[in-house]
Amino acid sequence: MPTIDAIRPAPDTFLNLIRRQERGRLKVYLGSSAGVGKTYAMLGEGRRLKKQGVDVAIGIVEAYGRAETVEQVGDLEVVPPRRIDYRGVTLREMDVDAILARRPAVCLVDELAHTNAPGSRRPKRYEDVQELLRAGVHVITTVNIQHLESLYDQVERITGAKVKERLPDSILGEADQVVNVDVSTEDLLERMRAGKIYPPERAERAMQNFFTPGNLTRLRELTLSETAHLIDRRARRAEADRAPATAAERVMVGLSSRSPDAPALLRKASRLADRLNAPWYAVYIETPAEELSRVDEAARAEIRTNLDLARQLGGVPMTFRGPEVVCTILAFVREYRIRVIVMGKSRQPWRRRVLAGSIADRLLRRSEGVDVMIVDV
After folding, report:
1. With respect to CATH, is domain 4-240 assigned 3.40.50.970?
2. At what angle do helices 213-242 and 185-193 cross, to 10 degrees?
3. How many Å apart are CA 356 and CA 364, to the nearest integer?
4. 26 has which bridge partners?
5. Least confident of 10-14, 81-85, 131-135, 161-165
6. How many Cβ atoms sit within 10 Å of the Cβ of residue 350?
7. Could you report the per-residue pLDDT of 310-329, keeping only the tens digit for each?
8. Max alpha carbon distance in the chain (Å)?
9. Any idea what the Cα angle at residue 29 is, between residues 56 and 106, rounded to 5°?
10. How far apart are CA 249 and CA 277, in angstroms?
11. What confidence category does residue 14 fall into, taking pLDDT thresholds of 50, 70 and 90?
12. How many CB atoms lie within 10 A of CB 376?
């Protein structure tokens, strides 16, 4: 496991990057949970950059009344947020137009995975950040590990919580710098008890549910592992850019209208492909029984949703037609030179699997030179 010093770049590294690049650069402070100090660290860097003569402004900051965070804003300029009235409540959202008109060199944007209020130009804050980057504004932002789309199922197993606000892994993968803001579980719980994260009554509930020692330890391990992987992937890609091109591993996952837990299967496939540094395909296998005209509207909507999720996860969504499932998958494998097939564990009754053979069994017998991975979702 890397040390914090190994994964934290020198403070002046980001300053050097933003002076060399016309398109905006993205720096992300990544944490294991609320309260570890991501916003505090982001604001601290903003103040350091300002002292070095960089034009810095705050696009949005979510202080939640935390005195330390409010104090850290200091003399940084805040671009006034938009105010949106929604169901009798006034909501604050980042004003992208005002930021573009102001055009700071660096914009500080808290909570990258935030969902914008209804009526906003874009549904997600990360989409607003992408516009700022395209316009040449450099962005420093914050996000927690549980908001990564590919980790949704793991986080639910760890914490029991269904995370509603998520962002594509590609956003983090394309960041120019990712800094892990790490705090020990004991220190984080002490901050919670002291009322530095939530008010006392909310803190007590949090420590009985999400903020348990076991949950926080697992999330911290997950954050350290993900940060180390991002650094390793960047190094491997840089090495690949210098080396002669070689045949890449290719991964596919087959989908049908009856896939029992397609989103979880897609997330596992995306993480496998990411570890292999390989392109991957999410393929709807359209046999005569699976023709879209023959499945009901609810199933068609679910297929579209799953293929869209694959796109968000960095996969290539496709439809591939054939007379029968196994031979159609094998035809796709040959045409696209697939090396790894990812499948979910069969839900068929054991008698049917023994008599007819599961799809996985038949693929294993007929897919020489191709790895077939059966994952439990």
Report:
1. no
2. 130
3. 14
4. 139
5. 10-14
6. 9
7. 998 989 999 999 999 999 99
8. 74
9. 15
10. 8
11. low
12. 8
Angle value at C-alpha 96, between 94 and 100, nearest 5 degrees: 140
Note the pLDDT tens digit of each residue in 163-204: 999 999 989 988 999 999 999 999 999 999 988 888 888 888
Contact 43, 69 (CB under 8 A): yes
Q: Which of 77, 88, 83 is CA-nearest to residue 119?
A: 83
Is 12 a residue whose pLDDT tops 80?
no
Reduced to 3 DSSP states, what percent helix, strand and coil does the chain have, rounded to the nearest 5?
Answer: 45, 20, 35
Range of lowest pLDDT (23-37, 46-60, 135-149, 360-374): 360-374
pLDDT tens-digit series, residues 289-314: 888 888 889 888 999 999 999 998 98
User: Could you give the dihedral angle defined by the CA atoms of residues 194, 200, 206 and 211, in that order, rounded to the nearest 10 degrees?
Assistant: 0
Going from N- to C-terminal start, the domains of the chain cover 4-240, 251-375
Residue type at position 16: N
pLDDT value, residue 306: 93
| H-helix or E-strand spanning residue 261 | none
Q: Which two tokens stand for residue 186?
A: 């004991």
In the prediction, which pLDDT does 347 show? 62
And the tokens for 353? Answer: 């699997």
Phi first, then psi: give them for residue 273, nearest 5 degrees. Answer: -60, -35
Q: Does domain 251-375 correspond to CATH entry 3.40.50.620?
A: yes
* Sign of the torsion formed by the C-alpha atoms of 28, 31, 34 and 40: negative
CB 93, CB 61: distance < 8 Å: no
Model's pTM, two decimal places? 0.80
- Neighbouring residues of 288: CB distance < 8 A, sequence distance ≥ 6: 294, 323
